[in-house]
Write a structure and sequence with these properties.
Helices cover about 45% and strands about 10% of the residues. The chain has twelve helices and eight strands. It has an eight-stranded mixed sheet with strand order 3-2-4-1-5-6-7-8, with helices on both faces. Helix 4 packs antiparallel against helix 5, helix 5 packs across helix 12 and helix 8 runs parallel beside helix 9. The protein is elongated and about 65 Å long. The structure holds guanosine-5'-triphosphate and magnesium ion. The site of magnesium ion has 5 residues, from helix 6.
């Protein structure tokens, strides 16, 4: 009899402990599932009940306590809503070049200061004029524009007679502005009058800053209240489309992408198609970097343009040139211009070079204006090109 009482007590204690675990698990979800109960050989065989046969056999795998859906909302949340990406508000575009001017002058000042110092010399002999020429050539202004500038300056300095620093600065500013040009229309054409969306394609050799520029430009447009679709027509690398998409997501712009190593022309075509369907204002197409010397790749670019133009003519074809590559940029520019009609130049990385004179040289080469300049890796470090602000940055204030 005593054994029976002892067995009952043990059974009650075991059950109580189990019950405690269950209750505990309601409060604290991190508890591990209980160890499987040892078969109680001392307990008396339980009376059979109706429906016992229908019970789940004991040796079948069963849900652990952790998996049981408990009342009271303490069950683990299985489907987690992905956090909506935070949409950034890009900086306003007005006055960007003025804001970024310090970046430009940091590397360009050598040009302006050097010229002004030389021009202030008491005797402007041939040697001094040669030094002035050298400075301009080093800054990548190019031979022809340099000659013109020096001839003009020589003439005007002679007429001027005595020279104050302010006068010299004024002369230099005027002559540089003449070379840079103040007449050209430098607006990036994104909104044709008769249809939507505007179509912009970005081209250039490897690593010049095409994707970055496309992303920055999307931000500029969004900041100005436009809606944008991005076309990832760089199908060479999967990472390229990801890179563009990341830029798009930051400002809430949709990115159209295709399979890796797919046909870039068809991605570009689809991007415009989706842009039309979505009714957005502008479609920006990023293309793969390609060496101007590889004819196959250049032909492919021509095809991208032709295929997109089944929708509508391109409003802008922007050639992205890395300012630090200097004169080599001119050769690239020439070849790209032959394959796709370039309508504007973006000069990137002007924050890291004293070769700002390339602005003058490349415009001459193509007869196409510089429309945008890149002044850093930051998301809003792209500025509309303003000749006055640029020249002021070159020669310092
Ligand atoms: N300092 C500076 N860096 C820049 C500027 N524009 C782009 N870059 C950097 O240049 C590098 C290349 O930029 P991407 O936009 O990937 O160049 P890409 O032309 O798309 O390159 P591919 O697609 O490989 O041909 C990145 O590290 C950019 O951050 C700029 O204006 N200033
Ligand atoms: Mg790229």
């Amino acid at each position: 009899m005593e054994t029976v009482i002892l067995a009952v007590v043990i059974a009650v204690v075991v059950l109580g402990a189990l019950g405690g675990l269950v209750v505990g698990s309601r409060r604290k979800k991190s508890l591990p599932p209980p160890p499987p109960a040892a078969p109680d050989i001392t307990a008396p065989p339980a009376e059979p009940h109706v429906g016992d046969e229908a019970e789940t056999p004991r040796d079948e795998p069963r849900r652990t306590i952790e998996e049981v859906d408990l009342p009271g909302g303490s069950a683990p949340v299985v489907v987690e809503e992905p956090a909506a990406p935070e949409i950034e508000i890009p900086e306003p575009t007005a006055g960007r070049l003025v804001r970024l001017r310090a970046r430009l002058s940091r590397s360009q000042n050598a040009l302006g200061k050097g010229l002004l110092t030389l021009l202030s010399r008491e005797h402007l002999d041939d040697e001094t004029w040669e030094e002035i020429e050298d400075i301009l050539l080093t800054a990548d202004v190019g031979v022809q524009p340099t000659t013109e500038l020096v001839d003009q300056l020589r003439e005007r300095v002679k007429v001027l007679g005595t020279r104050t620093p302010a006068e010299l600065r004024g002369l230099l500013r005027e002559e540089l502005l003449k070379l840079v040009g103040t007449e050209a229309d430098r607006t990036v054409k994104t909104e044709p009058e008769d249809r939507k969306p505007g179509i912009v394609m970005v081209v250039g050799v490897n690593g010049t800053g095409k994707t970055t520029t496309t992303g920055k430009l999307a931000r500029v447009l969004v900041a100005d209240g436009r809606t944008v679709v991005l076309g990832a027509a760089d199908t060479f690398r999967a990472a390229a489309a990801d890179q563009l998409q990341t830029w798009g997501e930051r400002v809430g712009a949709h990115t159209v992408r295709g399979p890796e190593a797919g046909d870039p022309a068809s991605v570009a075509f689809d991007a415009v198609k989706e842009g039309k369907e979505m009714g957005v204002d502008v479609v920006l197409i990023d293309t793969a970097g390609r060496l101007h010397t590889k004819t196959g790749l250049m032909d492919e670019l021509g095809k991208v343009k032709r295929v997109v133009e089944k929708h509508a003519p391109l409003d802008e074809v922007l050639l992205v040139l890395d300012a630090t590559t200097g004169q080599n940029g001119l050769v690239q520019a020439r070849v790209f211009a032959e394959v796709v009609d370039i309508t504007g130049i973006v000069l990137t990385k002007l924050d890291g070079t004293a070769k700002g004179g390339i602005v003058i040289a490349v415009q001459r080469e193509l007869g196409v204006p510089v429309k945008l300049i890149g002044l850093g890796e930051g998301a809003d470090d792209l500025a509309p090109f303003e000749p006055e602000a640029f020249v002021d940055a070159l020669i310092g204030e």
